[in-house]
């Protein structure tokens, strides 16, 4: 059972499909339930100068007022040219559909990434998908390349803070006939100073050539454009190249894909989602192959750290073939996320290139948001932290006086 003091907006005790149909839960559900009354009380709230945090987007200030309220010398009021109240939100993963993204906006998260979509329906890995992960380090951290990742990390159902979890879903997707109209609704629900970011990826199937794989990315990007999206994020950080192989670790192929996608989407900014890169040389190659050619305008990093997960007896924790390893997210990966942001920021400065950096990984307290900003992130996102604490964004805004 989940610790009683927390009620995640994604219920880890239910299947992905049940969450999709019945979610969100906790305070996110309350935000949706209160939406009608919040709309009725919009004028009164505006006149009194008070705002219910669960409905902030409905009574948010104008763009100019937003900039005046939230912009400080270290707090830009735009992300990739779009005005935002605060450059903080929830990345691709836990926001399964428009109900989740709308609830996120109502709770005050000003950036919401719609769960990664594909050109076709794609099934989810078997349940369970989320387990609590307990690294050996006293601070609960995992270090990329450490022996522990291959020897085994304990995973169970003790969801204690500071929380780290498995992320073993397989990037499921509804058919475009389902997600396209829902994505339109998600985009429309963003209030002033809020931004819906669609996430997509290509799907490689048996017998598919590289050219066909690239074409599938383009086709999916086109489907996203048809929803009215103003920008999008392309996921290269999941094992969508086969078992535990990451597309982002082939910068040259990513460069070919972003070129083809950019030709399709035109002036819409394209963000590339990256996993952890141990090598500065490979990371710089990624920047040169994408941003260097004008085919990407930003990077979001990191997604997870891959680890072998075991139960208390040392056996495979997640059932099923090919699931001996899983991505780990949450508190355990904050150090790796900050490291990637610092290195990307250094490359950006050294090459004199202009691109956005969105820092992701282990943000569970306001000081973690500030740490990412100081490391060079233009925006920051939290998945696990926000899942277990829907008030995280309010605490961050209170901490910085926003």
From TrEMBL:
GO terms for biological process: 'de novo' pyrimidine nucleobase biosynthetic process; pyrimidine nucleotide biosynthetic process. One of its GO terms (molecular function) is dihydroorotate dehydrogenase (NAD+) activity. It is an enzyme of class 1 (oxidoreductase). Residues 43-72 are annotated as: Disordered. Residues 205-399 form the Dihydroorotate dehydrogenase catalytic domain. Pathway: Pyrimidine metabolism; UMP biosynthesis via de novo pathway. One of its GO terms (cellular component) is cytoplasm. Its cofactor is FMN. The keyword Protein biosynthesis does not apply. Keywords: Flavoprotein, FMN, Oxidoreductase, Pyrimidine biosynthesis. Pfam families: DHO_dh. Residues 60-72 have a biased composition (Low complexity). Its EC number is 1.3.1.14. Residues 45-59 have a biased composition (Polar residues). This is Dihydroorotate dehydrogenase Pyr.
């Amino acid at each position: 059972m989940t610790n009683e003091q927390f009620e995640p907006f994604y219920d880890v005790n239910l299947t992905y499909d049940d969450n999709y149909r019945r979610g969100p839960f906790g305070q996110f559900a309350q935000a949706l339930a209160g939406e009608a009354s919040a709309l009725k009380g919009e004028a009164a709230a505006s006149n009194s100068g008070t705002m219910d945090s669960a409905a902030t987007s409905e009574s948010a200030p104008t763009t100019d007022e937003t900039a005046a309220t939230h912009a400080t010398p270290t707090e830009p009021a735009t992300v990739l040219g779009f005005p935002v109240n605060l450059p903080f939100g929830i990345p691709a993963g836990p926001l399964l559909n428009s109900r989740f993204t709308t609830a996120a906006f109502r709770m005050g998260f000003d950036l919401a990434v719609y769960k990664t979509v594909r050109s076709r329906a794609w099934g989810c890995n078997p349940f369970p998908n989320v387990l609590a992960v307990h690294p050996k380090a006293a601070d609960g951290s995992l270090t990329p390349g450490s022996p522990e990742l291959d020897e085994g990390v304990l995973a169970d159902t003790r969801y204690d803070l500071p929380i780290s979890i498995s992320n073993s879903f397989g990037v499921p997707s509804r058919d475009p006939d389902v997600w396209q109209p829902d994505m339109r609704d998600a985009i429309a629900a963003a209030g002033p100073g809020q931004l819906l970011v669609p996430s997509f990826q290509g799907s490689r199937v048996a017998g598919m050539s590289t050219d066909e794989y690239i074409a599938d990315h383009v086709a999916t990007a086109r489907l996203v454009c048809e929803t009215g999206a103003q920008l999008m994020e392309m996921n290269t950080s999941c094992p969508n190249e086969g078992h535990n192989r990451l597309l982002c670790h082939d910068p040259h192929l990513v460069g070919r894909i972003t070129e083809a996608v950019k030709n399709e989407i035109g002036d819409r900014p394209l963000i590339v989602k990256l996993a952890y890169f141990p090598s500065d040389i490979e990371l710089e190659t990624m920047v040169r192959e994408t941003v260097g050619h004008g085919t990407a305008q930003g990077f979001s990093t990191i997604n997870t750290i891959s680890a072998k997960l075991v139960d208390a007896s040392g056996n495979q924790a997640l059932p099923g073939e090919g699931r001996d390893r899983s991505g780990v997210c949450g508190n355990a990966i904050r150090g790796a996320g900050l490291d990637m942001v610092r290195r990307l920021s250094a490359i950006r400065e050294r090459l004199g290139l202009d691109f956005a950096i969105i820092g992701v990984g282990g943000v569970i307290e306001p000081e973690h948001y500030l740490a990412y900003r100081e490391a060079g992130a233009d925006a920051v996102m939290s998945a696990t932290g926000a899942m277990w604490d829907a008030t995280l964004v309010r605490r961050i805004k209170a901490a910085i006086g926003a």
